[in-house]
Amino acid sequence: MALLPKSDRQQIKATWMRESIGACAATKADLQAAIDAIDTWVDGNAAAFNLALPQPARTALTARQKAWLLTFVVQSRFEVT
After folding, report:
1. CA dihedral in degrees (60, 80, 19, 21; nearest 10)?
2. Comparison of pLDDT for 46 and 21, the residue scoring more
3. Comparing C-alpha atoms, which of 12, 81, 1 is closest to residue 47?
4. What integer pLDDT is reported at residue 45 of this predicted model?
5. How far apart are CA 41 and CA 21, in angstroms?
């Protein structure tokens, strides 16, 4: 999977700023750098995430379903709704 285009990353920033869950001391530039780093990390670790999944889920789920499942788990861990 390729990195997100710059416009998508900027849209993430705009959405996060609009829907943020509390005050944030980070500047817009800091936030954009964090989004860029997260996208790079996801891209670099996608294979490791896939290998961490047990069979048969690894082959039965699509890449999109795996990503969606990951978001559910992360949101639950941090009680983000």
Report:
1. -150
2. 46
3. 1
4. 96
5. 23
Identify the band that residue 80 occupies on the pLDDT scale cut at 50, 70 and 90: low
Residue 38: give the domain boundaries: 6-17+25-77
Question: Which H/E stretch holds residue 44?
Answer: helix 28-52
Domain count, the chain: 1
Report yes or no: 49 and 70 within 8 Å, Cβ to Cβ. yes
Domain membership flag for residue 1: no
Position 71 in a domain? yes
- DSSP-assigned letters across all residues of 50-65: HHHSPTTHHHHS-HHH
